[in-house]
Each structure stands twice: as C-alpha cells, then as structure tokens.
Automatic annotation (TrEMBL), chains A, B, C, D:
The organism's taxonomic lineage, starting at the top: Eukaryota, Viridiplantae, Streptophyta, Embryophyta, Tracheophyta
UniProt organism field: Trifolium subterraneum (Subterranean clover)
UniProt signal peptide: none
GO terms for MF: hydrolase activity, acting on carbon-nitrogen (but not peptide) bonds, in linear amides
UniProt-listed InterPro entries: FmdA_AmdA (IPR004304), FormamaseFmdA (IPR054833)
Family annotation (Pfam families): FmdA_AmdA (PF03069)
Matching NCBIfam families: FormamaseFmdA
Protein name: Formamidase
C-alpha cells in the first residue's frame, strides 16, 4: 500500500492574528526570509492561508473595515517552503519548480468571503475615479457556488485560485525590483512596512528595509491574480535562491480578469494541496530573459481541466478613448477600462446599482481580453460575462430583454439581511 | 413553403481590382458614402468581401508584396448596406441594429490566406522593434483547418470572423474622431487617402478629405478584430445615420487575440451570411455614453456556440516592465507585449524561428487576457496557446518535453514548397 | 504555390431523379459495384449527396409523402470511390482507410431538410407503438442554425454529419451479413430491392440478388448514424476490397442520439470534403476481430473540435421496465425508450404536441447515454437535452418553470406557414 | 451576518463496521425504515457515506477480497433523511424534492478507492464471459486526480458522484417492484438479505422480508449510476412517503458510462453537501406516469457546470451482433458490449493487459452512447474515451501511433508497488 492524502506543512489558525500564527507568515519578498517548512518532489502537501486582509475585513455588513484597511499589511503569505528532491537535494538557482495545484478551497468552517473597494485615498482601484468610496459585499459559499446578500439574483461557480504564488527573489533580483519601481510606485504604497512579527532583530530590520511588497506580480510569479490558476493547473516557477522558497496566499474563491475593484476577488482564507517537481537547469532551458539580465524571466503555466463551463457570454467592447473623449495611443489599459465601464452601465439597467456591478465584475468569472492591439490609434479590449451567473435576472443574451423586471440597490454600505437566492 | 437560403446583396469578383468591382467598395468611414444594397430585418442575406489587401498580397512565396504594401488602401469594405424593417422603414439614428452572423467562410475557389508583418517603416506591428522586416506565411484551408508550408507542424481549426463590421458614423461623430485622433495618429497613417474608385467628383473629394480611416475600431464597431465574432454570434451596433449603413470586410480565417503582427490574422476573401433586427430606440435603452456626448458608446455582442473546443492551454505571463527593464505603471499593453515575447521565445526552442512564431501567434486561436490591472505597479497579462494546434511538435503541456525533436526555420521570405502536414 | 481547394469527384444534380444522376448512385452494399471515382491520399476531395429519400420527401407541408415513402429505395449513396496512394497503389484488403471530414454542409441553394416518422406498417420507428402515423416537419437553415415552422420556439446549431459512410464488403463478409440477418430482419425490409439504375444486365441482377441493404451499420461502417461524425472528425474504416470503395450518403443537418423517429435526423442533400490516408496493414494492427472470423471488426473514430457548445442540459432517466410495467433484464433499448418517452411527456407540458417533441428529440443535438448496464435487473439510460435549443420556451433548467406560457400544437400534417422564430 | 457552511446530519466513522455506525445505515428500500435525520429546504447539509462494500474491500494489493465479496450487503446507504419546509411541514407524496449537489468528495483522510470485478459465480459484470475472475485496482487521489499503481500511465480528473440517491418507495410501489422483478432477477441476487443491524425485532423481520435491494435504479432514483450527477447538478426526485426519506450512498470518485465491471466505479467513502427544495404537487405537474399506475415515473436532473473538460476523444463503435456472430435485433446492450470489447482490444495493444483496460473503462470518464436505435437489425452504440487520461501512453488521436512504446501487464492480482505517475 502506498501512502495517500496530503501532508499539512503550513497550518493556520483563524482565531489568531496574522502575527500570532505558529509558523510565521510574511508579507514581503526577500531572499533571507527563512523557510518555515519543507516539501519533497512528488509528495502531496497542504498549505493553509489566511485571507488577504489577515482578518481585518470581517463578515459585518458594513464597508467601514474596507474603508480603513491597512494596505501596508496585506498578503500575509504562507511559507516560504523549501523544495527538495527525493534525495534531499534542494532546488538550485537556475532550476524550475513545477507546482501542480491538485486541490484547493476555502478552509472548512470558514466558507465565506468578501469583495471590496477601497477609498480613493487609500489604495483605490481600477475605476476609483468613478467609484471613490469604500464598498463591500459578503459572499457565502454553498459548495462550488457563491451568493451575496448584497448582490441578489446572482449565484455562480467560482474558479478558485491563489492570487499569490511565487518563489523568493535573489538579492540581485530584489535590487532590480527596488530600483525600477522607485519612481512609479505611489507614495502610499512605497511607505508600506513589514508586519509586526518581523520586528525586533537586526536581521529583520534589514529585511524590512530591503524587502519588496507583495502587491505586484513579478519575475518570481507573485501576485499575478491569474484567475485560471485553479484545480489541476501547473505553474513553472523560476528558482532564484536555494530551496526555491515557495510562498503562497491571497486565496480567491473567484475573480474576474483584471480584479478591477482591487480588493476585488472573493477574498477568503483557504488551502492548497500541491505537488512539486524540480526541473534541473530548466530556467535556462525553457525560459528566456526579456531584459538586461538573465533574471528577467516570467513563469509559464498550464490551465487545469475542471473550470466551470459557460456557453453563453455577453461581451462589451472598449477602445482606447477615455471618458473625457481623449484619444490614447494603443493603450490596452484605457480600452479595458472603457469595456468595464460599458458593462457596468448595461447591467445596472437591470436593477442593480453601479456599485453592485463594479463589485460583481471584479469577482465573477468574467474574461478580459486584448482583442486588438495594433489598429492605431485604438486598442480594443473586451469584457465577456457568462450570463449563467445571473440566476434570476434576465441579463441577455439571445433576446434583448426589457430591463425592468428586477430592482435592487445597494450602495456598498447598507445592511441587507435577506438572501434572495436562498430559496432558489 | 417558406423561402430559404440567403440573398446575395454584395457580390465581389476576385479577378477584378478593388476599384473595378460592380458595387463600389469603400475604405473610409463617412456618412455620405451611399448604400450599395438594402436588407430587410429577418431576411438572410449574403455579403462577399475581398481580402484586406485588395489582392495586393498574393500567394507567392515571398514577402516582397507585404514589404511594399500600400497601407493607405487597405480594408476595402463591402457595403454600405441600408437596413430597413418589414414595412420598409429604415433604421434611424438612436436605434440598434442587431446583426447575427449565421454563417461565414472563405469564398469558394479561393481557399487560402496569408499572415504577414510589415516593415517597421511601413506600418510595423506590435513587436516591430524586435521584428522590423516584412515577412509572410501562406495558409491553405482544408475545410475547417488551415496549414502553412512556411510554418510546418501546425494545423488548426480557425475561429473565422470579419475583422471589420460597423455602421456609418454621423457627421458629428466623424468630427469627433478626426478631432481626437489628429495628434496621436502617426504621420504615415494620417496621410492615407480614399482609393481610386472614389475619385473625380466634388462630393468624393469632400468625402475623401473628411472621411476616417478604417484601421481602428471605434464607436461604430469597425476594425475591432474581435476573434470570437464568429458563426452564431450577434453584434448590437449603434445607428448614427438613417438606414444604419452597415459595412463589413477584412475577413479572417483565424486570428489570435491582439492580432500582434498587424497584417496578422489569416487574411482572406470571404463571405458572411447575416440576419438583422432593428431595436427601435435601443441605443438609448441599452447603451450608455462613456464620454462628453451621447455618441460615445460601444457595441455589445454575444458569442456564438460553435467555436473550436480546446482543452489544453500553455500560458505565458507578462508584466508591465519592458525589455530594457524599465517599469511602466499598470500598463496592460506593455504587459501583453512581454507575454507575447515570452511565448515566442519558448516556442522557438522547439525548432521554429522567432519570425515563424510571431506570425503564428498573430493568427492562431490564442487568447490574450488582462489578468491583473490593479496590482501596482505591474499590470499582468497572459497569452494562452491551445497546444492542439501543434500537430507534430511536442509543445507542452503535461510534460516539459525536451525541445530538440523538431527543426525548421523560415525567415519569412524563403520559398518553402514542401507541406509537412499534408501527409498527416 | 501549392494547389488548394477541393476536387469534386462525385457531383449530384438535385433536379434529376436518383437513377438519372450522371455518376450512378447505389443503395446496396456489394463488392462488385464498380467505383465511380478515385481519390488519392492527401488530396482534399468533394462528394455531393442527395437526401436519404432521393427527393421523394418534399418541402410540402404535408406528411403524405412520408406516409407513402418507398423504404426499399432509401440511401442512394454517392460512390464507390476508389482510394489510392501517391504512387497510384490502391488500398488493399487488410489496410485501414483514415477518412478525415474536413468540411461538410447542405448543398448551396438547397438549405432545407425534413424530419419524419413513418407509418407503423411502413417502417415505423423507435416509438411506433406510441406514434403509429406518419408525420413530418420541415426545417430551414440559416447558416449554422435550423428552425421549423412545424415546431416553433426552437432554433439550434446542428452537428452536421453523414449518416452513412463505409467501405464495400468483400463477398465473404457479405455472405456473413446475409446469413446472420436472414431471420431477424422483418419482412418488409427483407423484400427491398436495388433501385432502377441497377437493372438490366446479368451482373446487376446478381448484385441485386446478393447485395445487403444500407439500413444498418455493420463492420464496414455504413449507416451508423453517429451524430458526432462532424467537421474535423476522422474515421478509420477497414478495407475489404481493393481500392476500399468508399461510399457515403444520408446527410444529416442534425440528429439526436438514437435518431428515434427513424426518418429522424434533419435529412438533407449535402456535400462532404474529405481527405484520406491509407494505413497499410492497419486492420490487423489496430482492430481486433470480435467474432468467429477476422472480418468481425468495427471502425474507430475521433471526434472533431468544432461541435456546438452547450452548457445546460436537462436529463431524463429511463430504466428497463416497459410501459406495461413489465421488467426486462438489463435491456438498454427498453431503458432508452423509457427515457425518451419521459422527455416527450415533460416537454409536451410546455405547449407542444407529443408528435412535435418526438420529431424534435429525433433531430436536435440531444445525447443518449447508457448510464448503468450492470445493476440487475435494470439498465439505466439517460437522454440529455441542451436547453439552449429552445429559443422562446422556458424549458428548464435552474428554475422549475410553470409550463403554461407557450402553446402550439401540430399533428404532423397540418400546414403551418408562420415562422415564429423568424422575428427573433 | 447569515449562517454559512453545512450542517452535518449523517456522520460515519470509517473505523467502525457498517452495522456499528451511530446512525444506522440501511441497504434495502422500504417505506418503514425510519429517518435518521431531518433537513430543511434551503439549508446546506452534509451527508457522509461509507464505501459500497462497507469496508470489505480493502487497500490490499490483492483481489481476494473482491473475490469473496458478500453482494447481499452492498450499498449501505446513509439516511433516510426527512425533508421538511421552512415551516416544518414535510414533503408529501406527490411532491418533488429538488436536491442540489453543492459539493462532494472523498472523506478527508481516506483519499483512495478501488475498482474491481467479481467472479462470474459471484455477481459477475457486463463482460463476465470474457473476464470471469475477480480482479482489483487501487486508486489514490491527488486532489482532483486519481492514479493507480495497477494501471500505470493513467491519471485523470474524476467526475465524482453518488451512485445511489433516492427517496423511499411507498408500500404500493414496493409491491410493484417485488412483483415485476420476481422472475428476472437471478437467484443469487434475490436471496440477498438486510444487513446485521436491522435484525431482531418483528418490524425489522417484516422489512427484511419485504424490502427491495438497492442494486438497480428504479422510479425513486436509486442506483442509477449516472456519472454526471456531480458538483452543481440538481436531481428532481418523486416523493412517495411523507418526508420523502432521502437516502444516498455508493460514492464514486469517477465512473465510466455503464460502470461495466459492476464493482466498477472508483468506489470510495465520501461526503455530499446538499440543498433541497420541495415542489408541492410537482410529481403530477412535471412527471408523467409511463406505466399502469401513477407511480411509474422517473426522475429528471440537470447537469452541473464543473465537469472536467476534455477535447480529444477516441471512439469505438459496436453493433448488435454478438461475439459468436449472432444477430440481435436492435439490442443496444449487445451493441454497447461490442463497443467496449473493441475498445479493450485496441487499448491493450499499447501494452496493457485486457484486465487492466476492462477496469479502466469501467471507472474513467468515458461516454457510452446509443448512436442508432432504429436501423434494423443493428443498434449502434459507441464508447468515447478522452485521450487525456493517458498521461504517458500515446493512445490516439490525431496520429495512429505505433502501439509498442509502453509495456505493462497486470492480471488483477499481482502486487505492484511502484507508482509510475508519481514522478510526472
């Protein structure tokens, strides 16, 4: 008989604060953050994670906690996990670590999540100029499905995934990051600091001073927010330090492409069951540097076979002309913004407030595409929404239906206790 | 018995030049270009189209024609087609025209296409800094499949679609376009002029002077290059002039999201079978202006049910750090560029030249996604390639395979006469 | 430049009777029916076909023609086509012929079809005890879609395929067929004879006497009525005579699993574009005899990538207890009958007559599954119906809807001229 | 805040025997088996289940336990669960209970299963004439994936589902069952008796004497073995007794259509998370009796949205001619047997023993279809296998590959400890 089941290598305790966990979490990338666990190639191991806010954003039906969220602390990652092969030899810089996500989900007993927007002055979001105030929706999970009292008439199967998964950077790579981001990162984010647990020693002071934030995705993977990195997918991560030092966190029950509201997936606590391989020398063999140093690489991944199947999509176009009518040259970000705004307006005609739709499009399994990127001067982006997520609202397609059959409003702050989909 | 089959409203003759066609084509948008045909709501009608280059790019195995392509003439559109209802009342400004694409394909007897890049000085493309020279691949169609002697080892089912479909702008909208594009459009494109057929009269001189180029997608639809606008899909176009004046062209046997090489789909001649409805007052009821005037709208569409089904995808990430290592702030265009470059490098390890892969990713059914657009400072874009397009090359997934089993090179200009996939 | 497009090897003229076609058709299987055309491996060739009834069932809105259909003549096949390799060497007995269906569709200008039931005394059908009278529905095609004035509220994309595709049997195999079928085939079918064209000569008398009917599928493929043998699929057929002698016919715009009404797909004229390979010695290498001789084999095939995508299915179960309450032992045919009857009753609650639903389930892309075949004494079969085929009728799923919103009746014979879906 | 998560209404303890469980299990259908739990409409509740053999078939690498399996005891069901509405009013006979499967899976800590065949004399299976001896394969789960040391080179995502789900029959329905099955059920199965726990009292003697076996599916649902009844699906069950008395069991990690080897899915312990609705009077409104009494109905269900996505299928045909060459008249069971035998032979050419393939086709997500059921005298059935389940073996499609690259044999009894897929 073979062993089976997964070995829990990083547990979390949701009753404790992020800095009270038995195995310390971390919210910065740095080569000297020591591994808290080890996993061997071929074994199935389990990693548990707290939610992106570390418990700061709660189940209360108010957006006050989102309004005052401390963005300097978000993304308490589980790990680092040192990856070694069957003979105990660790992954080396230049190797690839192939990480297969065999299973994942919410933590048992904690089957809920939230989607929020931040205040414009405290992090904002993709459409913060249109939605400057903090709002929040709570989602409850019924197995594969999620529903929200704040956005009634909607229920959908999530494509659950970790927002953050990555390896530790080498010092050289970290220096590249810190160098190039110095000028563009906004002040509010630059001033973020390591969380409490890492204080005290000289070493931690050094790490806190040098380490990179977990907000963006980078060469090591990181906060890529790729919504299809779900069950059965496999990501090939470059190794920059001995042991690879794999970290993960920021679990999403579901997310739309772009995660437009920023705190924008259905954020939750959760677990991953992973299986790793080491591909010796794989970084050189399979990846190609896209910049001045051999470190300028990006991960590759394969999508798993069990995503929800949707057959009917309603698609909104956007071009790179902004809301003031100004032309931007082949700018896919502007085009996508326009597509999202169009979708929000259309769906709001069916009885939702725009705040509700903004939250919804940030977290439902909608697809954001770069359709045309060469037809000067307009980039064309599209946002495709699977109509099956609306379980009571007749939002297209096939018939253009009269948008008057469903009415609900929610400004992101009002308590709503009735769950309209509970009886469906 | 009911009538059946489609009525041919715009025929083309591939033996004639664009300006010799019986029903004049047009390559500009202008409200005063007169309709050449009429279609009634509910009837199935057929529109034929010449290829994007108007026959200038030929089946010859050389990129010389792509190199010297006259971009001022591309997109000879078929139409305008005036849309009227069952009682003969035309579509009015403020209505929506719902256009269903019931069928489409190459023109019988002309089952081939091409994918090309332009010279950097003559139009360029998304990666023109990396691929500054004109290249070309010829594709032959075997029913739903396409293969190219220039890119052996690849054969795939296309998601065929029109690159351009749109309604005529009103004078007010045209003025908005001309105003906002004045500063950002490059000189080479701005100097484009109407093609020969439209010369001579005072009216045509006026139109030629005022009309907008067909290169970008805009409020009227236009060259959106949405690769999923295929069989069974339905697009809701705003109406700006009486009769809607629907035009279409630039047929693509297949295209990748972004159409990165610019002349970048599998360009071909072709036909559409369309069915229209008029939604009276629909523009106000279903679309929302996203700018300073009520004209700042964008079309909505629904995807059809018969796209090729792919189950295994290899995905490349890109972040908004450019090839020089410079940081861009949440720039999805830069992130997508990086993802495409990564994919090109990876696939070129399997025996292809980078020119071959650039052409391939521009025209195969790959998906370009905006994965993260809020995680400052990096946008994260992904390019997903269905591995089934490789019929002989072991490009992932599931095993990281040794990239040494397949060798071929093609610099975009060399004649290759053998069709390696013909015997498969 | 390479040649492209397909070579027409078997044309048909729909204005002529089956026995007046330039290349003779045939409606029996016999090794001595001479090839009418030849195709070379690797080339794309086109075969045209008349409809299953040979024009006897017409577009008239009456079931009189179905009532008096001459089943002795159905399935006028196009071919045989002799298959040779690049050096002109024909396929040999013991080889496999791999036939790829690159494209197919209705014949241009003949975009309509019919679904019918026969009288119980003249062929019947799967549920002839419940539906003993001839009925008929006419379908009109709008590109990928079909709709019927007789079954309003329904419109769907077909999975178009040839009902019959097969190779000629050897004399030895033909003798096996004639022997084993002698006792089980009903009288009415046994008395069938070759059609007119084959009369006159001694040789034809011999063939007419010996040849097998095209009704059933057999070792050579034949009338397998596999609804997924559509665009992009590839069937591996055993070769029993020199040249393989490939024949095909009985085109279906769409069919449900089982083709329950017998004349039960959307029958139409049509064309195939095929590409063949010869796998030398493949019959022995890849197939295994399942009976007393090496000839007892069955074809293998691969499904193509462009079938319509449906996401929501309503599924009806059936067990092997018949309508009288009698138990049958693990009988999948009885179980499937029960599942189909259940589906007919359910859908008829939404305003349809049972005759309409019987015709619909015979021709729409529904799936018939053998779910349990071992749980004595009940086989369990299921019929799954994609709910998207109903474009106006709220037939499930997700909400159990009140079945009172839609009313229409049709007894299979009444002229109905209005097309309710034309305006959608 | 709303409550969330599921309420455990039926726990099981895998360390205990079936008859030692805290809440008694049952392996017969009878109206008087008392409910062990209650669930309210709209609430999410959790049911745990032991495996079909009740622990008799173990993880040992020998088929001895399968050989001596006591079929009189299989299917220890969890329940009955009494279903009541929000006001405490139970489901009544004539209602429908809509049961949504929100989630399911193996029991934590017990992530393994088995597929077995029984001896011909002890239950047999669909192909018992060809495979008369007991065999067994053990499967280990890695999240969504399963692999078996006994069938190397295979790894796939399961479509997990309960084999048995049903409501209690009324006495009238039970009498119908017992009457009609008396003559056809084999002796060995007829002699089965209730398991130990139910012994002792007069009432239990009566129940044991009258109750129906759980082996077949029937009007109440039951052992339908519908492999698509997975996450997100919803089954509408008729109610025959007050409270509906819902029971479920026989969890399958994965099963092929037909479950051909009889003990044939990947059998495992597991859990369901369910949500019920009561549709008052729904039995009469939505179901139609298909026999002499109003009780002759069958359930309806809807398939969920998260089944594994496969794009490439290899399909084997079978016709209703048996292995001796004898013709059967439109017999779908014979046709399916032939299709399965053909598939076994084909795949065994790639290095597997036939016993291995028989087990594999019984439990992998293959599809069994009734393709033609009217083309006398041959029914045509097909078996479609997703080629992606083979992770190392080049079993089709697209190229007919030489079947010599992979060698392994397993007679169903030999211990094999190496897991060839562990390193993939």
């Amino acid at each position: 008989m073979a062993p089976y089941g997964s070995r829990l290598v990083v547990p979390v305790d949701l009753k404790k604060k992020p800095w009270e966990q038995e195995l310390p979490l971390h919210n910065r990338w740095h080569p000297e953050i020591p591994p808290v666990a080890e996993a061997t190639t071929g074994e199935l191991f389990r990693v548990e994670m707290i939610d992106a806010s570390g418990g700061a954003i709660t189940q209360n039906y108010t957006a006050e906690d989102a309004k005052h969220a401390d963005l300097s602390a978000v993304h308490h990652l589980s790990g680092p996990i040192r990856i070694v092969d069957n003979e105990g030899i660790p992954a080396h810089p230049g190797d690839l670590v192939a990480v297969e996500i065999c299973n994942l989900g919410p933590l048992p007993g904690d089957e809920w999540g939230y989607t929020a927007t931040f205040d414009r002055e405290n992090g904002g979001g993709f459409l913060t100029d249109h939605f400057p105030h903090a709002t929040k929706a709570i989602w409850y999970f019924e197995g594969i499905y999620a529903y929200s009292p704040q956005i009634p008439g909607v229920r959908f199967a999530g494509i659950t995934h970790p927002g953050v998964i990555g390896t530790a950077p080498s010092m050289e790579l970290l220096n590249i990051w810190n160098g190039r981001e110095r000028d563009v990162v906004e002040n509010g984010i630059q001033s973020l600091k390591l969380c409490e647990i890492e204080k005290g020693t000289d070493k931690w002071e050094k790490i806190a001073r040098e380490a990179a934030r977990t907000i963006p995705g980078r060469e090591n993977g990181g906060n890529c927010d790729i919504k299809n990195l779900s069950r059965g997918s496999k990501v090939y991560l470059p190794v920059f330090v001995e042991g690879a030092n794999l970290s993960t966190g920021d679990m999403h029950f579901s997310q739309g492409d772009g995660e437009v509201s920023f705190c924008g997936a259905i954020e939750m606590s959760g677990f991953l069951e992973l299986k790793c391989d080491i591909i010796r020398g794989g970084m050189k063999e399979y990846l190609t540097p896209m910049g001045p140093t051999p470190l300028h690489v990006n991960p590759i991944f394969e999508i798993g076979p069990v995503e929800p199947r949707f057959s009917e999509w309603l698609v909104f176009e956007g071009i790179s002309v902004d809301e003031s009518g100004k032309q931007h040259y082949l700018d896919a970000s502007v085009a996508y913004k326009r597509a999202v705004l169009n979708a929000i307006d259309y769906i709001s005609k069916f009885g939702y407030s725009k705040e509700q739709v903004y939250l919804l499009l940030s977290c439902c399994p909608c697809e954001g595409r770069i359709s045309g990127i060469v037809d000067a001067p307009n980039a064309c982006a599209t946002l495709a929404i699977p109509t099956a997520i609306f379980d009571q609202v007749p939002v297209g397609p096939r018939l253009v239906r009269k948008p008057d059959v469903f009415k609900c409003t929610y400004d992101g702050n009002l308590p709503i206790t009735k769950n309209p989909s509970a009886s469906s």
